[in-house]
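Researcher: Let's run the pair from yesterday's discussion. Sequence first, then tokens, for each.
Model: Starting with the first of the pair.
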Amino acid sequence: MVQIYSSITIILATIASLGLVQAAPKTCVVKRSATDDALTIAQAFKDCQTGGTVVFPQGQSFYPKTLMTIKSLQNVNVQFNGNIVLPNFSTKFDGGLAFLQLEGNNIHFDGGGSFVGTGQQWWDAKNNKAPFAFRVVAKDSVFRNFKITNSPGYHVGAVGCENVVFEKITMYSVSKTNNYAYNTDAWAVAWSKNVIFRDSEVTNGDDCTAINGEVSDILVSNIKCTGGHGYSVIGTLSKDGSYQSFKNVKIIDSVCTNCLNGVTVKASPGRPGIMDGITFNNIQLNNVDYPITITDHYFCDAKHTSACYKNDGTGIKFTNIYMTNISGYAASRDYIPIINVDCAPNTKCDKVHMQNIRIKSGTKTVKNICKNLIGSDTNPYCRI
């Protein structure tokens, strides 16, 4: 027996000397700061940058005074149980990326905490240059179960992401004055692939989803949006006229109530690129002004001519667009069609599939428009 125990002791000592006994994962609890909670938040992430757990304690609120960009996270759990209260309005934040940006791989963000914004101050100042409330640059990660209220600008952004899930997020940003909550897009994505946004609720003053350029394999499902600008795929990100690609984007099983727009594929003229494989399926639109829109002339009219890059004859190529199982009823505030297709004359829309569209007209609804759409002569919805 003595011989056996001695052998075990020697083996354990050898393993320890070789560093093969792994230390327990580190936990870093965020603390309050005497000056700026952005400092202690950044410190907690730095201390648990690799393989650790960052904890925002339940019931505690943190008040960052500066923008936070946390980089190089690896295998990090974030227990977001507390609240981050965003700073008061100041023009010093104009054009900043995000109040909190997390960058890294294999990040698991969860906990039921909240970002508490001061959006009303920004909206009353008519300032639409606020940073994102929360922005992510990540791979193989999950961000779930949190709230954002009164975001000064965009709520959640996914940029340069791959294999990332956003789910069970509640976003509520509504102005209490006559100053509208512009640029409060709920979930925006660009330069990303294999990204999911699902099982969430949005009440805001701009796009429920803003799917921007250089994306592929994007899935949006089971979203309930109220009062916003609907579900949008947007080809206006490239202000310098560079090529943009959108491939395999699906928005399914979702609802938009009292929204300005319903489902939208939009781009501004002269910006080259392709949208190939854009699907809207099983969408309920309740009291929506512009139910279905496909346009190469977004934000391009007498008031916004600066948005018209180069010429109106060309634009992003729209092909393999699927609008199926879309139901509900249109609002009656203006003379607007249920379906409005307005493509560029030299890059006509092709392979636009419409099926089982059951949207009840309002009292002012006019005939559907199908302009520069290949196959419009055989599309039954173009004759209504």
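Model: Moving on to the second of the pair.
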Amino acid sequence: MGFCSTSSISSPFHGPVIVDRMGFLQSTPRAGGPYLCSLPARTITAGPHYDADTVYQIEGYAAQVLRDLHLEYQGIRLVGRHSKVDPEPEQVTTVLVRMPNRPQPGSWYRATKEINQLLLRHHHHGISVELIETHLFNGIYCSPVESNHSIFPKWRNLAQEIVARCPNRHEWIGLDCFRYGTNPHRSSNPVTVIIRVRKTCESPFVRAARYVHGILAASGEAEVDVLFTKDGTKSFILNPTIPLEATTGSVYPGVSIGIHQSSADCSTLGGFVQLRFKDQKDWNTFALTCFHCVFPPEMHQGDSYLQSQDAKRGLKRWERHPLTVHDDPSFLDIAKRILRIDHPAPRDLKITIKSLTQSIKDMKDTSFYAAKAEIDKGEDGWLPDSVKGEYEAALKWIQQFEKERDIYSKMLKNGAYYLGHVVAGSGMHRTWLDGANRRVAVDWALIKIPSHRIDRQMHEDRVSGNKGFQYSKMPTNPPYHGGSFIDARDELKLYKSGRSTGMTTSAYHGLESVKLDRLKSKKGAGYDLVITWINTIATSDDSYSFAEGGDSGSWITRVDGKVFGILAGGDERLGTTYFCRINDVFDDIKDITGAAEVRIAPPPVS
């Protein structure tokens, strides 16, 4: 939407971007139309309505045009494409051509038009054409800026100056600073200030990009690029399957939670914390996750259990205010009735049951039933030993899947998934001033767990199982402890156990991102732009996502289990994750609940 660079490092955003009246794009790394998915995009099979001969014919037409124009290509496929951010209702059938990393914008644009016309002449309608540089097809990498880069110590002041000085900021959502580009060698991508704007915005930001670049250049950072892009941030909530261990009744950090009776999607239980109040000896144990994980989203507030006036009053209040023990008792009663939490989520149980049922169906194929028929004949039947062995192996798997399905079904039927209700929380949009007088975001909720769910894990004032669920084999999986962010440094390796992506690791990004909040002006009509600082984690080196939908609420830790933060969401377009610092959360818990002490629940003494 806007780009400015005077750096010596190449960027995929260099050069003009032109869209003609037919919807065809011409740019440096990509061309095509009449409809192109926004990047990043997922590539899937083209669908059952194209047989092999038709696919071969369509791909052949594309190859013919490219040969006639003397254009090299690295691959042609008829595929379905889906935008990762705000995906289309249906896949976009596309002739996808991977091109060498030597862009020829004019020739590529011409090729897409000619391929499209050739397809139409042969009555292949509704197919888009996309020529894309191979580097760009493989992905845009977002990675941390090294602490020895000259922009590192300047970033906070530069971000504040950009927000203060730039005109026409009413469409801005926030600012980031990463290495950003298509080079798989991450350190070779240009350092880029990324300015996120509203998704609905259509205005070009070319002049604004130049203005921001001027501010950077004046501070000695002319080699830093400036990019305007549509906002891709969202809370990470989704519907996953669940591990069998979660049906035992114990509480598992890193496993899914859902809102009781709600149609909303699922997220992750973070872990156990303990509060001690003034003049009290005993610690009080709660589960901790994000508040947005326990608050029904607007699109799901039509559920029947939320239609009372009390429920609507509570939801309206917690949009902007915290849920506090010092509140009107009626609000605490409302929370007890509508902010009820399941663990694991029943929607997940249903998905898991459906998945197991499909697996059983897949294994009971024609050969399975043929073998069974011969075995049922007794002495009159005959099977080769190899076929009999395959049948017995399949039968063993089917019986295992049926046994597991029965366990999930039993939990779904008896309601043993109910975890407890929310007793305190930040509300949906809480920010506050930290010890350095900077505005930071906090997003947390405390869940009170009934004794029948928690007693089996209590050992006096200690709790067993307070560690990330081990979805994959990790060298270590220590209990959670600590709860501090003071000694976090850039490029520190951080871990999380989340419901959707399991155990993952990535590097901490030392440069905080900026979220722009709009607060009602104290000077009259209008609003004031206020900077809120957000901690971020960039894409891991192996390019696998650190987090996806369903992972909100996960605790972020060091390799030894020391807790640094709570995962709150991310930017799907950039592939980054944002989180709340755990010490900010603990300070806010003290402020809202009146607790004298807050700690990570310690493990039993071995």
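Researcher: Give me one sentence on the second I can quote.
Model: Residues 346-414 form one domain.
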